[in-house]
Amino acid sequence: MSSQITRERRGNPRPHIPATGRDIVIIEDDEILGRSAADCVERWGSTAHRLPRPDDDTLRRELQGPVDSIAIVSHDDMVALRYALLAEHLKPGVRLVVTIFDRTVAEEVARTVPNCTVLSMTDAILPSLLASCLAPGYAMLQPVGDELVGVRREGVATHVEYLSRRALAGTPGPHPRSPVGTWFRSLGTSAKALVASLAALLLAYSVDVALGILVLHEHWTEAVWNAARTLTTIGSSHAAEHGPGWYKVFSATSMIGVLVLAAVFTAGVVDRFTGHRMTSILGARSIPRRNHVIVVGLGQVGLRLSARLRDLGVKVVAVERNRQAVCLPLARSLDIPVVIGRGGDRFLLERLSVRRARALAAVSSNNLENIAVAVATRAVAGEQQRIVLRAGGDAVTTESQSLFRIGAVCDFPLIVSTFVAATVLDAELRSVFVADGRTCALFADDRVVDLASWDMTSRPGA
């Protein structure tokens, strides 16, 4: 896995099978992830001891007994860092597996604690999300060097394939080029005012030039010069003083209109330069209008998914409802266009050209919100739109899926907890994914294993 940072690990003579008979301590701040990881450890022949947010004394008592490895599962990097350092202090040299999002913090932890393996929960789910967004025929897609490794689904069989990183970016879409009106609707209120006022000023300038040539019989160079003077409120044509009455009325009206339009245009320019805009009118941070991916929820998963799509050459736009979201500055630095608003808003979805989008991925941490976004998208874009949800295998998701064709569901807790449990038991896998209801793993030698075969009751001789 690309985000995995390992300084030292105990070898596993059978990398396709997890170690058994281990005593594993799981420190957690997420009950679902902790319980799922503990279930995997127990099914695969080891013993799991769960510690939900333990204090120092509780952790000290637990680590006095036999402990082979410690897994720290937390959504907060600072919490995970503190527990990792505390565990290393209380039991030096113990095998540690820690979930940390920030790569800088991850590198520092790996450097400071040499017996630690750092995983990113976000990168664990990304291969499944990428496949669902770009190529539903694949169960997972993961960049490896200059290529993409993918697991193609063909019935119950799976096949590993290597693709060019740009192979999926250039896939022709079914939508024709979008008209100028679609581009204008994608702009925000301030940008629309700026573009509209500029267009009106150019129109007024062109009309003034035309009237100078046709009505006042000026040479075209004089007409251009006088129209520019009028537009900038410096002066007007001397020939206009002897023009017909209707021309004077029209000229007076246009000058007043130009004065207003110039004020609007100037305000728009100042706002673009002084405001912290997350989108631009043109350029890298402009909102795409066809064959793009809409990512709703700019948390850790949404930011990393958007960045990975951009790396693959796929156009992307993110939606975030919280103006104070931590990942917004990071998205700005990566030139990812971000629209502030509610992903389930029909008008916002139409502004983002959801009907022309390649896919919509609802990846916020709130499962109900993701379902609401999916249902709204289905209502706006129709049955053919590809929708991807980050969700858990809970009753709400299952019931919603049975009522609505809401899209492909990527089970975040299942994939992440399985990856953590396999890593802490020294199974050197590359990725975990779900294919046709089966939880599978891809290894570095391109072997795909159905993880049901790891259950003790399923193993030969068990």
UniProtKB/TrEMBL annotation:
Residues annotated as transmembrane: 193-216, 249-270
Pfam families: TrkA_N
Record key words, sorted: Membrane, Transmembrane, Transmembrane helix
Residue ranges, annotated region (Disordered): 1-20
Tree of life domain: Bacteria
Protein name: Portal protein
Record field: compositional bias (Basic and acidic residues): 1-11
Highest classification ranks of the organism: Bacteria, Bacillati, Actinomycetota, Actinomycetes, Kitasatosporales
Organism: Streptomyces boluensis
Entry keyword annotation includes Membrane: yes
Domain RCK N-terminal: 293-391
SUPFAM superfamilies membership: NAD(P)-binding Rossmann-fold domains
Gene Ontology terms: biological process: potassium ion transport
